[in-house]
Design goal:
This protein is of the alpha/beta class. The chain contains 15 helices and 16 strands. The protein is about 40% helix and about 25% strand. β1, α1 and β2 form a beta-alpha-beta unit. It is globular, with a radius of gyration of 19 Å.
Length: about 350
């Protein structure tokens, strides 16, 4: 068994604070970490926890902090600005790496470190929160029900709730960059919102559009299914707007526009309140098909995304410190199985 102490980088973010708050329920104990003492120290005082202050670009300080623990949970997005440095630090110190990332490009980046991670006998598992525990588990569930599946569709939606600053900022950083899907095993860039459809999530039928969700990377690793598309619930007027987005993607990619959007984000609350989270419902739907035209569908319903992130990340941390580890790059369902998601309080799965 490894030590139950872990490094929580980005502890002052919306999701990081929630993970710090609930960690003791899973008998794991964070050392809070981040760049700014004025943000981290009050949190450490509130919860009676130790803390470290450093920037991931300060390699000596990063290595010193990683040497203190057996596992780090990176909650500091945008993850394309923090993941590489921490992963490379973990390879030097022999520290297991987890994060709550959902960025397709970051999954693909971390996958490149698979061999050195195996050589170091450490596990690299990005996406241990809502991104991508429920969808990854549903993908594996469908693959086991239809082993010869060649096509997979995954969709998620939330009733109620809202976005944290971190999630919204990550989305702002991706403005104008389009969408992605997997075809014949390869990631293909397509327009954002290329497809739209109605999905019966069980308790409600909602409109969804295609997006470059992390499962375009992770579901392929977990299942080997060569064609994968991912969708999220959106209002129809947003979908119609995005259909013409290609005309001004060049403008959305400018720092000027992205900075305006980020300033607006920072004027909003840090994320949904506890009451909002408790009243919200999260849905996940999946459908797998084989070459003969047979299809199978399944649904998940339960807490909204940030609540799933709390329990998903801490469940995996708990399993890791108890020695349940597979070295190298991994995905949640590949290591812990399709029923991992059912360990999250309030989560239900139904085969359609």
């Amino acid at each position: 068994m490894l030590t139950t102490t872990f490094l929580l980088y980005g502890a002052n973010g919306y999701s990081g604070e929630l993970i710090a708050r609930y960690a003791s329920q899973y008998n794991v104990h964070p050392i809070l970490a981040g760049r700014r003492k004025e943000a981290i120290e009050p949190l450490a005082v509130r919860y009676g926890l130790p803390y470290r202050i450093f920037d991931v670009n300060d390699k000596p300080a990063l290595l010193q902090a990683l040497k203190e623990v057996s596992v780090v949970l990176n909650a500091a997005g945008p993850f394309d600005k923090t993941a590489r440095q921490i992963v490379e630090g973990c390879l030097e110190t022999g520290t297991h790496y987890l994060d709550i990332n959902g960025d397709l490009s970051v999954f693909e980046l971390i996958k490149q470190y698979d061999l050195p991670a195996k050589q170091k006998q450490i596990m690299l598992m990005p996406g241990v929160g809502f991104d991508v525990v429920p969808t990854d588990c549903l993908a594996l569930y469908l693959k086991k029900k239809l082993p010869d599946a060649i096509s997979l569709k995954l969709a998620f939606a939330t009733l109620g709730g809202g976005l944290s600053h971190g999630t919204a900022t990550t989305m702002a950083e991706k403005l104008g960059e389009g969408g992605a899907l997997r075809k014949d095993g390869k990631i293909i860039r397509v327009p954002l919102g290329q497809k739209g459809m109605m999905v019966d999530f069980g308790k409600k039928t909602l409109f969804v559009m295609s997006i470059p969700w992390g499962d375009v990377s992770t579901a392929y690793f977990t299942t080997g299914i060569p064609d994968i598309e991912t969708f999220t619930g959106v209002p129809r007027n947003v979908y119609r707007f995005l259909k013409v987005q290609g005309l001004f993607n060049w403008l959305l990619r400018t720092s000027f526009v992205r900075n305006i959007v980020k300033r607006k984000i920072n004027q909003r609350p840090a994320g949904p309140s506890d009451i909002q989270r408790e009243k919200s419902i999260g849905f996940v739907w999946g459908e797998a098909s084989n070459a003969a035209g047979e299809t199978i569908s399944a649904r998940l319903s339960g807490p909204e995304g940030y609540t799933v992130t709390i329990h998903g990340s801490l469940l995996i941390l708990q399993k890791l410190v108890n020695g349940n580890i597979s070295p190298g790059y991994q995905t949640p369902a590949a290591v812990y199985g399709e029923d991992l998601v059912l360990e999250i309080p309030g989560m239900e799965r139904v085969q359609v």
